[in-house]
Amino acid sequence: MTTSDAALERTTLRAISWRLLPLIGLGYLVSFMDRVNISFAAPQMNAQLGFTASVYGFGGGLFFISYALLEVPSNLALMRVGAPRWLARIMITWGLIAMATVLIRTPWQFYAMRFALGAAEAGFFPGVIFYLAQWFPRAYRGRAISRFYIAGPLASLVMGSAAGALLSLDGRLGLMGWQWLLLIEGAPALLLALFFWRLPQRPAQAAWLSPEQRDWLESRLAADARATGAPDHSLLRAVLRPQVLAITAANFLMLGSFYAFTLSAPAILKATTALNPAQVGYVVAGAGLVGACGMIFSGWNSDRTRERYLHTAVPLAITAAAFAVMAAVQAPGIIIAAYLVALSAYYTVGATNWLIPSEIVHPRALGVTVSAINGVSQLGSFLFPWLWGLARDATGSFHLGQSLLPVSFLGAAAIYLALRQVRRAPQLA
After folding, report:
1. CB burial readout 178-207, b (16+ within 10 A) else e
2. Within the chain, what is the greatest distance between any pair of CA atoms?
3. Across all residues in the chain, what is the average pLDDT?
4. Is residue 232 part of a domain?
5. Is 205 contained in some domain?
6. 23 falls within a domain
7. What is the CATH number of the domain that holds 150?
8. What is the pTM of this model?
9. Residue from 116, 196, 186 nearest 148 by CA
10. 3-state helix/strand/coil string of the chain
11. What is the pLDDT of residues 275-313, one digit of tens each?
């Protein structure tokens, strides 16, 4: 590569990174925040509305049923309408529904709002993955994904830092603290949608790229597409490939377990450490901050080494070990440390987990494949919180659910290690 070619590559990637990733990262931060901020609202909301752990767990998980059902249809619509406008539509509807959740008074109203929120947000995450694949060459996607996906742990930082202050508004203007939290944290989606609407669809439409930059980027993306082989004209066949089914199973285990724990994490930390709500928020924020740093490093190192599977399996194994410690000990200091390790390790998985499908399927099938993986996996995000709540009501504690978390994360890690062996087999033959 000549000096001029290297300079063109560097300036092109810098331009698209600065133009796209901050906005997309903010969008994902708000989406993650609006789906799990009920975990901070729950202690106050459940007490005031008389919700049991089973009611809360079932309602919290209902989000993922509608999300799963509409994930593929939403991405088929995205491919027809165009990613920027469809993503903007998603943000407007979920923002309005997130804010309207302050109106709930009964369990069935809670169920309806969570189901509607999942339907509204369906397709956003795989739509973003598909959109970024239209802009970033494969060799740079680890860094690109990690820089937008970092919004997940940063959402914990924002929620943890702000939750105490928002809940303290209890009684202002006739609203409860949990209502203020949901109302204020739902509003940013409406504003961000205006900016998503104006994003260009593909590099050829980006006026802020020079003709040379557009040509270089389109040629690199075309070369990546050719390297994956001929496109599979049957989307169903692409989704049912054994490797894709294995990734789906791994995501089912780890996403279901993650959300079962996350939707009750503030309550668990408060009960096992005697921290007040503001202090619990700071612990959650700390896990988000460390996890964000780990995600950036994992994405960079994964691109540097061109290795995705170990970068996913090892953090999952660490997460399993840390959750095992949380379930086995009673010392508050050790519980807090184990929580920080568990969440920090889990967040780093996001930098590489969603890169693996792009190395298996053709870019034309990537959007639907990712949405199918994510959609089916989110069924676990409904099932696990519901069972978690039933176990809590039946036993009077979260211990049974916590004891099973390591099994799920170890199972997901084992699947990725097996996929790595399958991937390496042709090279070892």
Report:
1. bbbbbbebbebbbebbeebeebbeebeebe
2. 70
3. 84
4. yes
5. yes
6. yes
7. 1.20.1250.20
8. 0.71
9. 196
10. CCHHHHHHHHHHHHHHHHHHHHHHHHHHHHHHHHHHCHHHHHHHHHHHHCCCHHHHHHHHHHHHHHHHHHHHHHHHHHHHHCHHHHHHHHHHHHHHHHHHHHHCCCHHHHHHHHHHHHHHHCCHHHHHHHHHHCCCCHHHHHHHHHHHHCHHHHHHHHHHHHHHHHHCCCCHHHCCHHHHHHHHHHCHHHHHHHHHHCCCCCHHHCCCCCHHHHHHHHHHHHHHHHHCCCCCCCHHHHHCCHHHHHHHHHHHHHHHHHHHHHCCHHHHHHHHHCCCHHHHHHHHHHHHHHHHHHHHHHHHHHHHHCCCHHHHHHHHHHHHHHHHHHHHCCCHHHHHHHHHHHHHHHHHHCCCHHHCHHHCCCHHHHHHHHHHHHHHHHHHHHHHHHHHHHHHHHHCCCHHHHHHHHHHHHHHHHHHHHHHHHHHHHHHC
11. 877 788 788 878 878 887 888 888 788 888 888 899 999
Amino acid at site 33: M
Domains in the chain, number: 1
Residue 391: name the closest of 379, 378, 377, 405 by CA. Answer: 405
Instruction: Tell whether 429 is covered by a domain.
Output: no
Nearest to 42 by CA among 261, 266, 288: 266
Range scoring the smallest mean pLDDT among 50-54, 141-145, 308-312: 141-145
Domain interval for residue 328: 3-424
Cβ atoms of residues 56 and 389 within 8 Å: yes
